[in-house]
Design a protein that fits this description.
Largest sheet: none
Order of helices and strands: HHHHHHHHHHHH
InterPro entries: Ankyrin_rpt, Ankyrin_rpt-contain_sf
Distance between the termini: 58 Å
Strand content: under 5%
CATH superfamily of one domain: Ankyrin repeat-containing domain
Keywords: ANK repeat, Repeat
Radius of gyration: 22 Å
CATH class of one domain: Mainly Alpha
Structural class: mainly alpha
Length: 242
């Protein structure tokens, strides 16, 4: 079974194999999953549509993120790949593209990729650097897959503490419920991700306090427009309500 780590050292081997077995769009996605930068670059030079889905509904950016093929990932992003493109109709037939030796495999749901973006993929498989690169290119934190789950749901389910912190630092909304009514906190609780639960609880308290302070500030400013309030009185109101 092919994995990124079994890839031939010489890219022309991948060229020959890919072109012999796959159609151009499939060969392109395959090469991207193996971090074959020069192969991918040649396809881009040939004006191949880098956002085109292969026969399984996968696209190059998603597979590069899943395998943390960072050089290819950066090349695709700089070449105009749609950072928020979603997967369609992909099941375990794509196992050959995945580093199957990864201990991040939790359950069969990892292969249910419908509606997932490259950021979903990185957060599912624990690809921190890939996620960081995607976020640097303005990947959406709020896009949902076909089950209504965000990248934060994926990171919480699979216990990726560093990725959860990365998303929180990017000001992700941790209160979004999926189509089954589960928030990321619910997911972390169900999967017994205790470190993540503590992290989300602390973030929720901080986020709530900051948001509440902002609301009270706007309220007191509104009152001040109608009645002159000394600064000391305004401070007392804010301290009392928060």
């Amino acid at each position: 079974m092919w994995t990124r780590f079994d890839a031939p050292a010489k890219s022309f081997h991948v060229d020959f194999l890919a072109e012999a077995i796959y159609k151009p769009r499939d060969a392109f996605v395959y090469a991207a999953s193996l971090n074959q930068v020069e192969v991918v670059r040649r396809w881009i030079t040939k004006k191949l549509n880098i956002n085109e889905l292969d026969k399984e509904g996968s696209h190059a950016l998603y597979m590069a993120a899943q395998n943390e093929s960072l050089e290819v990932l950066e090349l695709l992003l700089e070449s105009g790949a749609n950072v928020d493109q979603q997967q369609r109709d992909v099941r375990s037939s794509h196992c050959a593209y995945v580093n199957v030796s990864s201990n991040l495999l939790r359950d069969d749901s990892l292969f249910d990729r419908q509606g997932k973006t490259a950021l979903h993929s990185a957060c599912t498989w624990g690809r921190f650097e890939a996620a960081r690169l995607l976020l640097a290119h303005q990947a959406s934190l709020s896009l949902r897959d076909d089950d209504g789950q965000t990248p934060l749901h994926c990171a919480c389910r699979n216990g990726h503490v560093g990725l959860v912190q990365l998303l929180l630092n990017s000001r992700v909304d941790p209160f979004v419920a999926d189509d089954f009514g589960a928030t990321p906190i619910d997911v972390a609780r169900d999967w017994q991700r205790l470190d993540i639960l503590d992290m989300l609880a602390a973030y929720r308290a901080t986020e709530f306090l900051e948001a509440n302070q902002q609301r009270v500030k706007l309220l007191t400013e509104g009152l001040s427009n109608q009645v002159e309030l000394p600064q000391g009185v305004r401070d007392i109101i804010i301290d009392f309500l928060c």
